[in-house]
Design brief:
Layout: H1 4-12, H2 20-33, H3 41-56, H4 66-82, H5 85-105, H6 110-125, H7 128-137, H8 146-159, H9 165-177, H10 181-192, H11 199-213
Helix pairs in contact: 1-2, 2-3, 2-4, 3-4, 4-5, 5-6, 6-8, 8-9, 9-10, 9-11, 10-11
Length: about 210
Amino acid sequence: MGRYEECYNILINCKDPEDIEVKWRLCRVLYNMAKDAKYDEQYKRAIISQAHEIITSELERNWDNFAVHKWYALTLDAKSSIGGVKEKIKQLENVKKHMDLAVTLNPNDASLLHMLGEWCFQVTELPWHQRKTIETLFASLPYSTYEDALEYFLRAEAAQPRFYSINLLRIGCCYLKLDKGDQAKYYLKLAASYPAKSNDDHRANKEAAELLKK
């Protein structure tokens, strides 16, 4: 964690910077750098755009590479979020399409399964009045359920147990939404006591502890 600049320099100075295995890793580094609080918003926007351009140029010739679809989806989601609500809504289906393609090519990638769960969770979480307002102003929204989200989160956990604190938190949240208190409590306790090494871990600890109090 926190050594992304070093990784970036290694990748751009490697023997074959045009190798697809180098390029998607470069996208991953730029994507993670854009999540670092030490950078300002203008710089974050610039490196997300850079990452998206790199992977978009590889989409056609590396259509059968799961990592290309995965990082295309992630950088598109990040880039469209920067573009505002309208652009985010416009790209939702496209983001899901490339996540689905990636998981078809690699069904056991835990982080990808988590991302699909997150997509379903966020779509489901939209309150009815917000959904109607967005559909009136922009476009129709995709539909999902907490059951859909939970299935992906559980698949991610099965593929790589305890790999991500937020995945444990989300499993607990989904079980809560589905009125399955015992299962919810089990996963929320795991999330609350997860060793905190990143901002996401601290967030999971805090949110899970608050939900357990309720």
